[in-house]
Amino acid sequence: MSSSVSTPSRDLETIAEVEKSLTFSSFTADTAWRIGNSLRSRLLNFPDPVVINISLANSNQSLFHSVTRSGTQADNDSWVARKRATVLRWGYSTWYMHNKLGGDEAAFTAKYMLGGSAGQYAIHGGGFPIRVKGVEGIVGVIVVSGLKQEQDHQVIVETLQDYFRNQN
């Protein structure tokens, strides 16, 4: 495996279509384990240390949490929490939210009247919603933190695409 990913689209319709296409027929702790391990295996090829977290939406229950190598910081876990909060609140990937607002944090804060709570959210790629067919809303969140934001996002997308391809 290489330490590269393709460049993700910045078009909101395309991003939303990709997210919708990656809907699970079911999602369990075993599913999270397989996806988490696939992400970690792929990310071991990147030189930067990365945190991977997969958690349920209805609680803060973590189903998978790992780092790829020494060198992650407590700040990575803060980014995980902020990206997760964004996905849970708006129901889209953080990459979608980043592109919706042109990456403008001040516009993000103003548009959603976040005031002092803006720091609880991140509009940087790497937070991705877990959807299950026939279930309203999202059931969980996958977060990658440690690479460039477009890589954090795209490694999740490509790993999920591989997962779904191998299911068939």
Automatic annotation (TrEMBL):
This is DUF967 domain protein. GO terms for cellular component: TRC complex. One of its GO terms (biological process) is post-translational protein targeting to endoplasmic reticulum membrane. It holds the Pfam family HbpS-like. It comes from the Eukaryota. InterPro entries: PduO/GlcC-like (IPR005624), PduO/GlcC-like_sf (IPR038084), YBR137W-like (IPR010371). The lineage of its organism: Eukaryota, Fungi, Dikarya, Basidiomycota, Agaricomycotina.
